[in-house]
Amino acid sequence: MLAEIITIGDEILIGQIVDTNSAWMAKELNKIGLAVKQITSVSDNAAHIVSTLNEAQKRADIILITGGLGPTKDDITKLTLSKYFNMPLRQDKVTLDHITSIFARLNRPMIESNIRQADVPDGCTVIQNANGTAPCMWFEHQGKIIVSMPGVPFEMMYLMEEEIIPRIKTAFKLPVIIHQTMLTAGLGESFLAQEIADIEDSIPSHIKLAYLPKLGQVRLRLSASGSDEELLKNEVSAITEQIVARISKYVVVADDLTLEKAILDKMKAMDLTLSTAESCTGGYISHLITQHAGSSAVFAGGAVVYSYDLKESILGVNHKTLNDFGAVSEQTVREMVQGAILHFKTDCAIAVSGIAGPDGGMPDKPVGTVWIAVAHKQQVVAKVFNFGGKRVQNIERSATAAFTLLLNLLKQDV
Amino acid sequence: MLAEIITIGDEILIGQIVDTNSAWMAKELNKIGLAVKQITSVSDNAAHIVSTLNEAQKRADIILITGGLGPTKDDITKLTLSKYFNMPLRQDKVTLDHITSIFARLNRPMIESNIRQADVPDGCTVIQNANGTAPCMWFEHQGKIIVSMPGVPFEMMYLMEEEIIPRIKTAFKLPVIIHQTMLTAGLGESFLAQEIADIEDSIPSHIKLAYLPKLGQVRLRLSASGSDEELLKNEVSAITEQIVARISKYVVVADDLTLEKAILDKMKAMDLTLSTAESCTGGYISHLITQHAGSSAVFAGGAVVYSYDLKESILGVNHKTLNDFGAVSEQTVREMVQGAILHFKTDCAIAVSGIAGPDGGMPDKPVGTVWIAVAHKQQVVAKVFNFGGKRVQNIERSATAAFTLLLNLLKQDV
């Protein structure tokens, strides 16, 4: 049993938006044992939508489509499906009532194009969209299932979680797919591979090992498929134990977590609190932390301070330190991290001061020069990095480096 | 002349990573007048890679492939292409020297798998990857061009910018594609469409109008293709003027900018400075602002404060206010925004205090309740929102709402 995802919209093909729907949907499908064979993005073009749909049905049994269901003229998915399945449009009363109630709640008049959103191909199963006006449509066609959903992420997510996934689980007996990820930091993928070469060679063919590198981190992922969940779990768990034992120095956590979530979990278990003092990362580090539910149990707060003035008034950095050594210096970043601990009253802190670029580089401190300090108890560790990349990458790498430094400092506290 | 993008990697199909490469590449290709017909993501499976490559060549002239070039066993793209083009692998001296120099610089030993990265299909054009060890390979095959690049984004980006785009521009006479985007806030897409229905009906067929909604914002995008750049520009510009004149109340900017970049530009022109006081958005607002180059000319800094204690000590919120009204209240958010202006010494400020969830909801303040205040000169505007969504969406919507409130306040200052 295989699934495919088709995302429709000119905005994807011209690169105006990143297709985040597909990854989210693929993850949800994999959780219920449904592997995704292919993800295809096509423009709002009827002929291309039809040929893509035909190709997808040759490979997969369930096709999930997002996008192209808006009320405006550029959206043609519904009309295309109506013709494809030879199901003329009819007005759906339940959908119309739903749309009418949304507009009544917003106290807005309905216009012709809103009413037309209640038209559906006659013969499909109509599934109401609690978060929007475009209904979801479920087609059964020559033994295949084709589902059309809106492309707005939170509308699609609600429909997947509440409607589509439960219906798929009821309709099919699905195989089991198990993934186990190990997050590592500090060693490149080829060296990790060398360290565990003999283990990798011994892995049976229904289990795959993949290396997923990302700026300073490598994820190792085992994927097993079969029918006996208990057996697969035991097999994967045994291999995971072997690998973790071999490269324990580099394993952050044997789970598919982000680096900052692994740190949050560790700090929560150690009953430690954290604050941040950010310059060039501009709030990105505190954002990464606070996007996780429950982060406030560990994270007290942080300051983003660009100017000398604010580094002094908010964090208590000495005027003389800034004048003598500059904002991007070991001395300043050490005072920033201590200032964060003092003013935000936390056990640990992260401080970053650097030149993210593209401007602000100097001969002795080019763009990409970043000083990072982390503190835990009385210990402060400071390190300089020369990322030399572009602004967004420098911000990203600074965050990864800061988390890795803090993690290593916490590891010493056992 | 059409292009297609194929991204290879199991991690995409199981939803472990979001494919951000495709959007970036599509944008770059469109800039040089090369439309992308389809984006296809497939797993590390040789047969599927081959069939995808065959299908793509039926539709497009240039196929850009990313991913599957790492040194580890799960990466099979190079071997698959070698067999597909019937070009046996040979060791490339220049590539080997490049890899050797990288390892020498890192002071690390080279292992067998690193050396094998210098193997390339005999007959392709090898393009050195300045940011990594996997070389880029350019194939010419039955009148089509197929390029294989590493999937690591900053390696791919460098290769595209420095090598692939210039080579494509040299090789072909490309048509012109022009996009013009208008960012609007405050009116839904169906109402916008109604407002400009007659303008939309008059648009010639070589120009398309698309509506791209995203939590509280709608982008209108005109896309024109043809051969005469000047003519297309004039046509698009005339339609843009008509639309902007019609819906001027809702147009933030007639450009493809993010909301925060439009605000930064506007504030810079008005010579105003900005600070933030964030609770539930946890640094996301300051991160959105500071990811833009040059933001420090406007943005002075900000505080992320979760506890009552820090709201008092960092921002000067009154203890009595917090006790009497709670952290998520009009009174608190007004004192937060004034505290930000005072302590960060700025002309304008944004303050947000809310319940992002999933925990922390109360009967009178459920999850998704967010108070936002914006301040400019002596004016403070505060408003409550009930987003009621999930954590990440609540954070995202809070940021959009805050920027829209600030923008409207700035608009009054003329």
UniProtKB/TrEMBL annotation, chains A, B:
NCBIfam families: cinA_nterm, molyb_syn, PncC_domain, PRK00549.1. Residues 4-171 form the MoaB/Mog domain. Transmembrane segments: none annotated. It comes from the Bacteria. This is CinA-like protein. InterPro entries: CinA, CinA-like_C, CinA_C, CinA_KH, Competence-induced_CinA, MoaB/Mog-like_dom_sf, MoaB/Mog_dom. Belongs to the CinA family.
